[in-house]
Amino acid sequence: MNAKAEAKESRFELLKWLAVVVLVAVGVVGNQFYSAAPVLYRVIALLALAALAAFLALQTAKGQAFFLLVKDARAEIRKVVWPTRQETTQTTLIVVAVVLVMALVLWGLDSLLGWLVSLIVG
What we know:
There is one protein chain. By secondary structure, this protein is an all-alpha fold. It folds into two domains: about 1-80, no CATH class; about 85-120. It has four helices and no strands. α1 packs antiparallel against α2 (about 40-60). The chain is elongated, with a radius of gyration of 29 Å. It starts with a helix and ends with a helix. Its main location: membrane.
């Protein structure tokens, strides 16, 4: 019995994902077909179709897992300690200074090696 229930559930999952794909395709084709219509109406229609497709996708196991992942990611982002403006500016200036110094060093090495090769080759 359990195998039958799982097969039936997986069939419904497949139908839900198929409906999501059909809704997205209707949005893309409809947007192209009604290209002469005002943009506002097309955007409203696309947002409605996207909301319906997202709702259907969230009814599936993978959609729920994705929603949980997004929710957990938002919680982790809130835990991040972002640098202050002064720290960001100082770090940026340090990086720019190191890049400039390394550029000068590499330019000097390139010039020196080019000069040595020209002495050897003639």
